[in-house]
Design a protein that fits this description.
Blueprint (H helix, E strand, L loop, with lengths): L6 H4 L2 H15 L2 E5 L14 H7 L3 H21 L3 E4 L6 E9 L2 E11 L6 H10 L5 H9 L6 H42 L3 E5 L5 E4 L1 H7 L3 H4 L11 H13 L4 E9 L5 E12 L5 E10 L1 H36 L8 H31 L8 E4 H11 L1 H6 L3 E6 L5 E4 L1 H17 L6 E10 H5 L6 H4 L7 E9 L31 H13 L3 E5 L13 E8 L8
Parallel strand pairs: 11-13
Antiparallel strand pairs: 1-4, 2-3, 3-4, 5-6, 5-9, 7-8, 8-9, 10-12, 13-14, 14-16, 15-16
Helix pairs in contact: 5-6, 11-12, 12-18, 13-15, 15-18
Length: 563
């Protein structure tokens, strides 16, 4: 085997100590499991005071004891049978039997610390002085307490030890086989996935990869491993920045996109998830990256974007044609019409405007996602814009018996904005307030102009928007509040995502409003403002119709009104 097997990696030290305790109880000798260099792996079990307090108490003595245990194991291995011998340190009788796992000698079971016959005082003193013992009298006294055991008895003990080491070897081999099976299964699992799995060291040198890497990067695994991961990416600075963040330990993993390179330097887009691997002390020892080729996903996404862009652009012409035709009819240019016909035509015009607004929202979101969304700003009166929106929705409000009231601060409230986009945003929110209100309910619209510092002090302003405000900047703050089914608190942030819908347990709620609010958020943020919603403070607890307030805050570009 190429790898070095360590016994304690296969059998816990506690288990080895338990085995030695059983040996000691059966044989009455001292014993230890040591590595091939004689260094203890287990506890030194049942050692006599002579060995523990004298022979192994000095550096020279300990070195000789380790050498003696190693010698016994080596002789046992060479003779292929348990070995009984005189200890190289004090001359006691010891025995050894090797532990062999998968053909590799990984340790010895050493025992003994007995005598067949007495050692002469002169010989004992010489051995004591040879290992730096100063308490010669104590050394000799402890030596006299060493038990006498006949070699025939010791041979039986060492035979038992041989059986035990064979059991230890079998146990360790079993663990190795299980580990190999687990490793083989893990390798099969890793190599079966469609993503690249790459392990790198702290210098970002690749030390392991699965088979998929060979296909994606166009090279053999031997050519891939040992290389810097930086060599296979085009965006060196991006990857280096994330590497630096991982090293600092502020975050243990990141997911991001970058451009990778094949061995032929062909670029392709990938999504990479990279994680930090720590040791027990929390220090980074390696990093694992999961890399996915997203070339096909990007191609499909581009096709979808192009399709949406084409459809929404081409749908505008027929909508405009319908709008002009309805205006001709409603204006009486094609002949007189009755009051009821005029009312129906105005409803049709309003519905067609809503359809046009949806198409324009699609187109603007598409432009924003492709970096082509532009604003055309000028100075307008926001109060005048709101009044126009209320007038355009008046028929729909009347049909539901809604009381729509506009509370404005001042006659003129200046706003530097893109008129078309801001008007559509207000219309979206107002349309929702009508559609998801109760019959006979009410809608309240209000506007005011405040400094950023005053808005920031508002107790119900979401925390994430406070840092966007400039204390000295003038802002227009518009609120549209209704008495409808409301938006549950859990959805009051996600409701501004594309195509998000809300459904209550009773089957009531806001459905199909995600696009309009996604567009409204896009417009607000493009103007350096923001939009959020909340349940009114006045709403009764557990009410089926708590209502909702939509707040639109935009930099005004005009003078602030006194608070």
């Amino acid at each position: 085997m190429k790898e070095s097997i360590q016994l304690v990696d296969l059998i816990p030290k506690e288990k080895l100590d338990e085995i030695l305790q059983a040996v000691n109880e059966a044989c009455g000798i001292g014993s230890v499991i040591a590595d091939t260099q004689g260094r203890p792996i287990s506890s030194e079990s049942n050692f006599c005071s002579f060995c523990k307090n004298y022979c192994r108490a000095t550096p020279e003595g300990r070195t000789k004891c380790y050498a003696s245990d190693a010698y016994g194991g080596r002789m046992s291995l060479d003779s292929n049978e348990p070995y009984v011998y005189d200890c190289l340190n004090a001359g006691l009788v010891d025995c050894a039997t090797p532990i062999i796992v998968a053909g590799q000698h990984i340790g010895n079971l050493n025992g003994g610390q007995v005598l067949e016959e007495s050692i002469s005082t002169a010989d004992a003193v010489a051995r004591a002085k040879g290992i730096g013992i100063t308490d010669i009298d104590g050394y000799l006294l402890a030596l006299r307490k060493i038990p006498r055991v006949k070699r025939s008895r010791l041979q039986k003990i060492v035979n038992l030890m041989s059986v035990i080491t064979q059991s230890i070897s079998d146990m360790a081999l079993q663990r190795i086989m299980l580990s190999r099976q687990s490793q083989e299964y893990l390798n099969k699992l890793i190599n079966s996935v469609s993503d690249c799995i790459i392990s790198v060291d702290t210098d970002f040198i690749i030390d392991m990869s699965n088979d998929r890497c060979s296909e994606v990067f166009g090279c053999g695994l031997n050519d891939f491993c040992g290389q810097s991961l930086m060599r296979f990416v085009q965006d060196h600075k991006v990857l280096a920045a994330y590497k630096s963040s991982l090293e600092q330990g502020g975050q243990d993993n990141f997911r991001f996109e970058l451009t990778a390179l094949t061995t032929r330097r062909t670029p392709f887009p990938v999504q990479i998830s990279i994680s930090r691997v720590n040791d027990e002390s929390g220090k980074a020892v390696s990093y694992v990256a999961i890399l996915r080729d997203i070339t096909e996903e990007k191609r499909i996404a581009k096709m979808k974007e192009d399709l949406v862009g084409m459809l929404t652009h081409d749908m505008r012409n027929p909508i405009l044609a319908i709008d002009r035709a309805l205006e001709l009819l409603a204006g009486g240019r094609l002949g007189p019409i009755t009051d009821n016909q005029e009312k129906i035509l105005k409803l049709a015009l309003n519905t067609n405007d809503q359809l046009g607004s949806m198409v324009n929202a699609f187109l603007d979101i598409f432009r924003d996602e492709n970096g082509r969304f532009e604003l055309h700003k000028s100075h307008y009166d926001i109060n005048k814009i709101i009044n126009q929106c209320i007038e355009e929705h008046s028929l729909l409000a009347e049909e539901k018996g809604l009381d729509v009231r506009f509370f404005q601060r001042g006659q003129h409230l200046g706003l530097f904005c893109d008129l078309f986009r801001v008007k559509r945003t207000i219309s979206n929110i107002l349309s929702n307030a009508i559609n998801y209100n109760v019959v006979g309910g009410n809608i309240q619209v209000s506007t005011t102009s405040l400094k950023g510092g005053l808005i920031e002090a508002s107790p119900f302003l979401p925390r994430q928007y406070k840092r966007r405000l400039v204390d000295s900047q003038n802002y227009v703050w518009m609120v549209i509040a209704d008495t409808g089914f409301g938006v549950p608190e859990a959805y009051q942030e996600t409701i501004f995502e594309k195509f998000f819908t809300v459904q209550t347990e009773a089957g009531l709620g806001r459905r199909g409003i995600g696009l309009g609010l996604a567009f409204s958020k896009l417009v607000a943020e493009a103007h350096d403002g923001f939009i959020f919603c909340r349940t009114p403070s006045r709403a009764p607890a557990q009410s089926r119709t708590p209502g909702v307030e939509f707040h639109l805050v935009l930099p005004s570009g005009g003078p602030a009104q006194p608070h």
